[in-house]
Design brief:
By secondary structure, the protein is of the alpha+beta class. The protein has 9 helices and 16 strands.
Length: 297
């Protein structure tokens, strides 16, 4: 079954520059390593059980060759075009505890989904991480893919030094995907995920109607703007797709103080429908994504 959001993939033009910027935002970013045969490399900020990924093209020629083997739903297909158009959140990875069974269930629901395929990367310290993944096909293409880790979490944690992020983030809370037709899009996500279609609620920070699918402790929000705000701006700028990752912090004051100390502009603030204050780093600060923080002072 699908158990949680595994990670958010933020695609950037230059990995070194992006690492420096996300460290200013308070994330403890560490080099993740290269993807063999893909021409890409990444950096990782580990939370309790999920992580933030920055992804960039490392070798243009190797990347170009890899496109001949990637299908329509492959995460590396069209990557350079996506980055050239502004970058940002390209895919949200959904974790499975039995990917073969989940793929079989999606096929039984009449969905176009790939076979389970192996993946790996080697960290700068020489640790080989292995997983298997599956992607949706062109008939029902969505900006999500599915992953089951073969390397245990305890081993994966060894790729980064132990310690807390300066922004005190400890988990992803929710991601948001903007669309033009919420009922139809939410129905498709419900069919793909094998979950009931959620009740629509109003989001007062992103100024959108929201259908939030709960995957373990994480929310996958499908939204349609009802007024000007981050979702409407993202829809106008890039069209439908993922645009925001919201992280829970142990101290919003600590996050705000760290970001201010790095010389970054003040973050946008809004009040959620829960009454909590959320802070948003804008796409200009994050290489194309809205990155939010929410938590007690």
């Amino acid at each position: 079954m699908f158990t949680r959001i595994d990670h958010v993939m933020i695609c950037v033009p230059d990995l070194v520059q992006a690492i420096a910027q996300y460290r200013k935002l308070g994330f403890s970013m560490h080099g993740g390593g290269a993807h063999p045969g893909k021409g890409t490399h990444n950096a990782i900020a580990m939370n309790n059980e999920d992580y933030l990924e920055l992804l960039a093209v490392r070798d243009v020629a190797e990347y170009a060759a890899s496109r001949t083997t990637g299908g329509p739903g492959s995460w590396n297909t069209g990557l350079t075009d996506f980055i050239a158009a502004g970058g940002g959140i390209r895919y949200i990875a959904i974790q499975s505890d039995d990917l073969a069974a989940d793929v079989a269930a999606m096929c039984a629901r009449g969905l176009d989904v790939s076979d389970v395929t192996p993946g790996s990367r080697r960290t700068p310290a020489g640790l080989e991480l292995k997983w298997q993944s599956a992607t949706l096909g062109a008939a029902n293409a969505l900006p999500i893919f599915f992953i089951q880790h073969l390397t245990p979490l305890e081993e994966r944690r060894k790729q980064v030094p132990a310690g807390e992020h300066p922004n005190r983030v400890y988990t992803l809370e929710r991601t948001y995907i903007v669309c033009n037709n919420l009922p139809a899009t939410a129905a498709l996500y419900a069919r793909v995920l094998g979950l009931p279609q959620p009740q629509v609620v109003k989001g007062t920070v992103i100024m959108s109607d929201m259908a939030v699918f709960q995957l373990g402790e994480h929310g996958l929000g499908v939204v349609e703007p009802y007024a000007d705000g981050p979702a409407a701006a993202a829809l106008k700028r890039r069209g439908p797709g993922p645009f925001q990752a919201l992280y829970r912090t142990k101290s919003s004051n600590a996050a705000e103080a760290w970001i201010k100390a790095q010389g970054l502009p003040p973050l946008q603030k809004g009040v959620r429908n829960t009454g909590e204050v959320a802070m948003l780093a804008t796409p200009e600060m994050t290489f194309g994504a809205y990155v939010g923080f929410v938590g007690m002072a």
